[in-house]
Amino acid sequence: MPMSGPDIEAAILAALPGASVELTDLAGDNDHWAAVVTAPQFVGKTRVQQHKMVYAALGGRMGGELHALQVTTVVPT
Q1: What is the CA radius of gyration of the chain?
Q2: Phi, psi (degrees; rounded to nearest 5) at 30
Q3: What is the three-class DSSP state of 72?
Q4: Are 67 and 31 in contact (CB under 8 A)?
Protein backbone atom coordinates (compact mmCIF):
# COMPACT_ATOMS: atom_id res chain seq x y z
CA MET A 1 0.00 0.00 0.00
CA PRO A 2 1.43 3.42 -0.93
CA MET A 3 2.50 5.78 1.82
CA SER A 4 0.08 8.70 2.23
CA GLY A 5 1.09 12.35 2.31
CA PRO A 6 0.27 12.68 6.02
CA ASP A 7 2.38 9.58 6.75
CA ILE A 8 5.35 11.00 4.83
CA GLU A 9 5.03 14.33 6.61
CA ALA A 10 4.73 12.66 10.02
CA ALA A 11 7.85 10.55 9.45
CA ILE A 12 9.90 13.58 8.40
CA LEU A 13 8.63 15.72 11.29
CA ALA A 14 9.35 12.95 13.80
CA ALA A 15 12.98 12.82 12.66
CA LEU A 16 13.39 16.57 12.14
CA PRO A 17 11.44 18.37 14.89
CA GLY A 18 10.67 21.98 14.02
CA ALA A 19 10.83 21.32 10.28
CA SER A 20 8.20 22.38 7.78
CA VAL A 21 7.19 20.01 5.00
CA GLU A 22 5.34 20.89 1.79
CA LEU A 23 4.26 17.84 -0.21
CA THR A 24 2.99 17.59 -3.77
CA ASP A 25 1.52 14.38 -5.24
CA LEU A 26 3.21 14.51 -8.65
CA ALA A 27 1.17 11.82 -10.41
CA GLY A 28 -2.06 11.77 -8.39
CA ASP A 29 -1.35 8.18 -7.36
CA ASN A 30 0.06 8.63 -3.82
CA ASP A 31 3.22 6.97 -5.12
CA HIS A 32 5.29 9.81 -6.64
CA TRP A 33 5.87 12.77 -4.35
CA ALA A 34 7.83 16.01 -4.24
CA ALA A 35 8.77 17.40 -0.83
CA VAL A 36 10.17 20.77 0.14
CA VAL A 37 11.65 20.40 3.62
CA THR A 38 12.85 23.39 5.63
CA ALA A 39 14.63 22.39 8.83
CA PRO A 40 16.94 24.01 11.36
CA GLN A 41 18.92 20.75 11.44
CA PHE A 42 20.17 21.55 7.91
CA VAL A 43 22.30 24.49 9.07
CA GLY A 44 25.96 23.78 8.30
CA LYS A 45 25.16 20.62 6.32
CA THR A 46 25.83 20.03 2.62
CA ARG A 47 22.88 19.51 0.28
CA VAL A 48 23.75 15.78 0.09
CA GLN A 49 23.79 15.51 3.90
CA GLN A 50 20.43 17.30 4.07
CA HIS A 51 18.86 14.90 1.57
CA LYS A 52 20.29 11.90 3.43
CA MET A 53 18.64 13.21 6.61
CA VAL A 54 15.25 13.32 4.87
CA TYR A 55 15.65 9.84 3.35
CA ALA A 56 16.82 8.47 6.71
CA ALA A 57 13.62 9.82 8.27
CA LEU A 58 11.65 7.55 5.93
CA GLY A 59 13.59 4.48 6.98
CA GLY A 60 13.23 1.48 4.70
CA ARG A 61 10.06 2.77 3.06
CA MET A 62 11.81 4.16 -0.06
CA GLY A 63 11.37 1.81 -2.99
CA GLY A 64 8.58 -0.04 -1.17
CA GLU A 65 5.69 1.89 0.35
CA LEU A 66 7.11 5.06 -1.17
CA HIS A 67 8.13 4.61 -4.80
CA ALA A 68 9.58 8.04 -5.59
CA LEU A 69 10.33 11.19 -3.61
CA GLN A 70 11.82 14.31 -5.17
CA VAL A 71 13.44 16.24 -2.32
CA THR A 72 14.24 19.93 -2.10
CA THR A 73 15.84 21.07 1.15
CA VAL A 74 15.94 24.60 2.51
CA VAL A 75 17.95 26.08 5.37
CA PRO A 76 15.77 28.49 7.34
CA THR A 77 16.91 32.09 7.42
Answers
A1: 12
A2: 55, 25
A3: strand
A4: yes
pLDDT (tens digit, 9 = 90+) per residue, 39-59?
A: 999 999 999 999 999 999 998
User: Residue 21 contacts by C-beta under 8 Å, 6 or more apart in sequence?
Assistant: 8, 9, 12, 13, 35, 36, 37
**What is the rounded CA–CA span in Å between residue 11 and residue 27?**
21
47-57 vs 5-15: helix crossing angle, rounded to 10:
120
pLDDT, residue 18, reads: 97
Q: Where is 24: in which H helix or E strand?
A: strand 20-25
30: buried, middle or exposed (CB in 10 Å: 19+, 13-18, 0-12)? middle
CA–centroid distance for 8 within its chain? 7
Angstrom distance (rounded) from CA 25 to CA 13:
18
pLDDT at 74: 98
